[in-house]
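Contributing new records

If you add data, match the layout below exactly. Sequence lines come first and carry their own label; structure lines follow with theirs. Keep one chain per record. Anything else will be rejected by the validation script.
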Amino acid sequence: MKKKWLAVISICSLLLGAGGTYAGMTWLVPYWQTTAKESPQESSGLSIGAELDKVAQAYELIRNAYVNEVDEKQLIQGAIQGMIGTLKDPYSVYMDADTAESFEDSLDSSFDGIGAHIAIEEGKLIIVSPIKNAPAEKAGLKAKDQIIKIDGENVEGLDINEASLKIRGEKGSVVKLEVVRRGLAEPITFSVTRDEVPILTVFSDVKQEKGGKIGYIEITSFAKGTARDFKTELQKLEEQQIAGLIIDVRGNPGGMLISVEEILGELVTGKKPIVQIEERNGNKKPYYSGLKKRKPYPISVLIDEGSASASEILASALEEIEGYALIGEKTFGKGTVQQPIPLDDGSNIKLTVFKWLTPDGNWIHGKGIEPTTEVKQPSYFYTQSLPIEETLSKDMNNEKVKIAQEMLKGLGYGPGRTDGYFDEQTERAVKAFQTIEKIDVTGELTVDVAQKLEESVIRAIQDEKNDIQLQVALKTILK
């Protein structure tokens, strides 16, 4: 059903799935409120009729005189995409009818795909964050990975929706992504098997620290039902008399504004706005919490470079309104608002129409939010997978050896160097690993040994005792 006056505003990246793309932060507003006060003629001094006549002339010329037959629909879409392209804004895109329908469908509670949020940053197709336990995360893809090829085809020139269409697919099918990762000299390729990705967004637990109970809530995205689930889990934690609360939005790429607004309504008072929306003319509209009294316990927030959009709204509000601590690493930095506006044929244009500002009026776009306590994870948290095709042995020197050395070092096997040269100390470290794992002690990294090494690293990462950011939060929240 076509919406005549309601439009969805989105802030964030896109989520890859067979159902299409997933809008980040969304809320409903009357469409007329988003339009500029002055008409295009008044603002530019141009005659719109004359300018559009020029476009029509170009269309007819190409349609009738070009050496080959042309698709009229593609000409129109190309004209729209060309106009949007002149904006040089990676978040403003045109979606044809099929993509627009998928955009709506993907707001469901599950989808088939790889489970990774993507965006275009400075012309580069990057992963904002993989979804927890989704195929992308299991394959080893990480936040800030730059995708350069999809199934062997270069991604240069693709907009966000075209890239999404190429990556998404049916459950059980495989997509190959070639990515560039910071710190590595050569690209690496991941084969990701698509699967059903349920959108479960709230996970809670109680941590014991210094004899007290600390509540822990992880929010993986701000989707439909997230605020409801957050309130339910928070109530359960409070019934256990928690002495503090840790909210984890690491790797959370954003979601629906109404969701983060309702969550903040439980956590911050109304002495400052939760967020401010700035229009093109500079006018700002603040959104406030109705909470009169802050929580009787301290709150800390875990953030990293995969925390974007609505996650940044939550983090900035908790810090700037109530002075709560942000622990971890600098966030992604996305401070613009997009609105998908439906067109007559079912297509739409997702256009950047606003900026959003923190409670104190800061625009974090392209900058991110600095933590109040910066904490980096152990180095092996940042290593990638180790898919090797040949045995790694003494005197070899390549990127795969470097990755293996970093893994061995993180696990405590002491390879000595981590520059990619397989020396005697690295060989001894491999032998020590093989001894502990009760496999043939050869000092060589075969495909099977590399797989076991990678599995050991994954287990270490999943052990919360090794999560330094969480441990710092637990030890400091009650001070």
